[in-house]
DNA sequence: GTGAAAGCGCTAACAT
DNA sequence: ATGTTAGCGCTTTCAC
């Protein structure tokens, strides 16, 4: 492999001069610079980043912990992360955790073993829990999307409670009183906050909360399909269903249609996320739009700030805006 | 940071012994081993992978070039890649290229600058085109999904021609004669092979190819929606549409329904990929199922074989199986 | 403005 | 079985 020494020989200068020419061209004499640059291209020299990393003790890599890469919403977040990282000179080490804590901790080891400089966690859990960090050090991590209440690091999220309240109010405004909810995983802060928003709206409208109208799920198409089946099998089925993800909403709509009912004629359905498929579902889905890519770019920016010593105290807690998108899947009840 | 020297001091042995204890425990005396392991855990020692990489000249990272991370099919391939890489001790550096050649070449630089050991390319293009490799070296790369005809490296793909023929035969078998096709990008080998399969089937059935029935697209929902609009506006619209991706098929179905027509009553629609949404579309989509995750795991295995000197000549060209999945979106024409 | 040299943490060749 | 040491490629003092 052609290294800096070869280039130095070729240019008739010292390795230090080659290094300087490449890193701070302005401090070498123009004539030397020309010689060196010519030698660099003559030799087809590319700096060995392993050595650079080793020397500088910085990999310029970020680990990203994703519960499910194939989830359409997360895929958009990852796109945002990758674009922002690339733009700031960082690589992205992608890890699919399936929401498993042990797996997350194992991947977090990439930071403690210096394979990456920092980590972005898209789930509400601290993967460094078991890792030892020198006291007084800031955790090289940012928490995004599903955020810990007391995240020991910067975080980016949505005001899920307000968003869920907005969506529920939309349904109530249409005249619905029996509004079901297909939720995310029970222990997720996402679920907790959105349920809180849902209850806020019910309460404000004087509608009693009925726990037979809530059903847990896991954000997938299958979960929505199944949950809609049990909800519609109730004695007094709901006239509207609020799903905590668009995927569940699409699954739910399909189940309702297979029961011979119509959306929104018999049941209104609303989702959360605004994925691309939601504009093309039948009917198009009413939902809460989240700025998925922005979660990624914001998380990257905050993490790099942290890594490069531009972090602030207290850690920033960014809340991104949502938007209610009304489409054809919601209408007044019969 | 606690390094191997600290551990050696703590255990009262040399750094070499610590290294050996960690790499080949069996060659150190049991008593020494115990001392060292204790020191390791007492010091909370984690080997510095930057140094290991530098020393061994191997990063154990793979670069993955994806045209579009947010594409549901690719997301599944990436899941497969990540799982296999992780399992074999490699990290995945994910790069979103948007199909841009310059971007691909820039990312390929991660291999020439030794930030990664090898590369998986999911598009039919050699990103090392402009990079200089020592003559006689094998390119540290594998080409998957959309594969170059003369890929200078191992490859994994589908028999797209046969799959497209199978799907077209299904439509012909139902009685369709005017079968449109919404294609992928014009210059993609995927498009070329699938069009060839489509024409094979037409020809075998004695149906003349009509180029007014083919329409280019780019695999997205939007493209399917638009293309279906123009196809149905023809004087003699098709009775069936074969879409080169499920996303385009879902977009097309939605457009057809908005025209007041029914699927499959007025027009049958078929897709390609078998993404999760296709089971939940209305009607559920007839399609060609591809083993998306398997593309990823196969690509990783071949690449690591190559990197670790287990590559074979000639380079393996793997063809994965497809399956026709018949659902409700196709039926005999009126 | 340029060169000489130390040293980042680790592994492996060699010596004992 | 264990220790000593060179050296991977680079950046950065410190001299001149």
TrEMBL record, chains A, B:
InterPro entries: HTH_LacI (IPR000843), LacI/GalR-like_sensor (IPR046335), Lambda_DNA-bd_dom_sf (IPR010982), Peripla_BP_I (IPR028082). It holds the Pfam family Peripla_BP_3. Residues 2-56 form the HTH lacI-type domain. The keyword RNA-binding does not apply. It comes from the Bacteria. Keywords: DNA-binding, Transcription, Transcription regulation. GO terms for molecular function: DNA-binding transcription factor activity; transcription cis-regulatory region binding. Coiled coil: none annotated. Transmembrane segments: none annotated. PROSITE patterns: HTH_LACI_2. The keyword Transcription regulation applies. This is LacI family transcriptional regulator. It comes from Halotalea alkalilenta.
């Amino acid at each position: 492999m052609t290294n800096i020494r070869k280039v130095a020989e070729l240019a008739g200068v010292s390795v230090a001069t080659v290094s300087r020419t490449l890193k701070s061209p302005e401090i070498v004499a123009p004539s030397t610079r020309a010689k060196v640059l010519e030698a660099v291209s003559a030799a087809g020299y590319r700096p060995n980043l392993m050595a650079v990393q080793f020397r500088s003790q910085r990999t310029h890599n970020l680990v990203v912990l994703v519960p499910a890469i194939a989830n359409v919403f997360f895929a958009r977040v990852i796109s945002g992360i990758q674009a922002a990282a690339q733009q700031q000179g960082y690589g992205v080490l992608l890890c699919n955790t399936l929401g498993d804590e042990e797996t997350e901790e194992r991947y977090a080891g990439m930071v403690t073993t210096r394979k990456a400089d920092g980590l972005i966690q898209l789930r509400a859990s601290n993967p460094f829990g078991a890792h030892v960090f020198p006291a007084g050090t800031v955790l090289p991590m940012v928490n995004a999307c599903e955020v810990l209440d007391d995240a020991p690091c910067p975080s980016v999220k949505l005001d899920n409670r307000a968003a869920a309240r907005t969506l529920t109010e939309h349904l109530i405004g249409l005249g619905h009183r029996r509004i079901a909810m297909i939720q995310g995983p029970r222990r997720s802060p996402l679920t907790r906050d959105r349920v809180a928003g849902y209850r806020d709206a019910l309460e404000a409208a004087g509608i009693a909360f009925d726990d037979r109208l809530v059903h847990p799920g896991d954000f997938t198409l299958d979960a929505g399909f199944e949950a809609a089946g049990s909800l519609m099998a109730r004695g007094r089925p709901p006239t509207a269903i609020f799903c905590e993800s668009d995927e569940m909403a699409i699954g739910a709509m399909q189940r309702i249609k297979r029961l011979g009912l119509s959306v929104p004629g018999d049941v209104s359905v609303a989702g959360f996320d605004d994925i691309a498929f939601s504009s093309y579902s039948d009917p198009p889905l009413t939902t809460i739009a989240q700025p998925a890519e922005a979660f990624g770019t914001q998380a990257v920016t905050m993490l790099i700030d942290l890594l490069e010593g531009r972090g602030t105290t207290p850690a920033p807690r960014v809340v991104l805006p949502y938007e209610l998108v009304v489409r054809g899947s919601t209408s007044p009840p019969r």
